[in-house]
Amino acid sequence: YDAWNPAWLKFVERNLGAWMHAENGLALHVFTSIQRSGPTNMINTAVAVNAAHKMRFAQDLALFNLDLSEEAPGFDGQAHRQVWQSAPEWQPTREVVERLTAVADWCELLFATNIVFEPLVGELFRSGFLMQVAAANHDFITPPVISAAEADYERNLANTIDLMHLLVTDNQHGAHNKKLFQGWVNKHVALANKAAAGLQPIWSQPHSKPVQYADARAQSVERIKKILGELGLVLPKE
Fold it and tell me: CA quadruple 156, 161, 164, 165: dihedral positive or negative?
């Protein structure tokens, strides 16, 4: 950690720990809460694995935070709590995560998280920022941790798309399901867009800034358009 840029260490102190709260909230209060709610064991098992992936990543971040607290001079391992609870840039993301925990329908919850929140907010921060900026600030530890989580998401996204595709192409209920899902898109994209916009100031915090927020945001928008396109759904114009 001695080679890290001091500004990057301060960034990690505040923001990587804050993201840990988002991952932990999704693990415990979203996926775990619905892992027995699906109509088949196959769906429930996939959701349980999704919960385990999220929980494992949150634990990875917690252990990373603990290591930094012990090894990096001046690192405040408790700073992330206040950041998550009160930092303006994180409150829209916190709102989305907390709103997701209040969604009762297991299918809507799975859809809102893996189809909407992850590409517009999760991947935006993990791949669009951390994976691009860490090495430029001499941090070669964070990217491998993040890449494992991104690989987990790819698997969880694949089975979620497969499930939703079955529902929108069903001979009897496909049209109804597609209309329902489009309503979920409109509802949850609005909240995710607010969260993504709230994170914009984070791009200016590190000393070295090899990627711009606008470019990362454009990639995340293209990503969700592709995902929705596989289901015959569209991204709201706004």
Answer: negative
Q: What is the DSSP string of 64-121?
A: HHHHHHHHSTT--TTHHHHHHHH-GGGHHHHHHHHHHTT---HHHHHIIIIIIIIIII
Q: How far apart are CA 128 and CA 180, in angstroms?
A: 30
Q: What is the CA radius of gyration of the chain?
A: 18
**43-93, pLDDT tens digit by residue?**
999 999 999 999 999 999 999 999 999 999 889 999 999 999 999 999 999
Sequence letter at residue 128: G
Distance CA 9, CA 238 (A): 36
| Contact criterion met (CB below 8 Å) for 123 and 150 | yes
- pLDDT tens for each residue of 160-181: 999 999 999 999 999 999 999 9
Give the pTM: 0.95
Cα separations in angstroms, 75 against 66, 94, 133, 141, 206: 10, 23, 19, 16, 16
CB within 8 A of 12, min separation 6: which ones?
4, 68, 139, 142
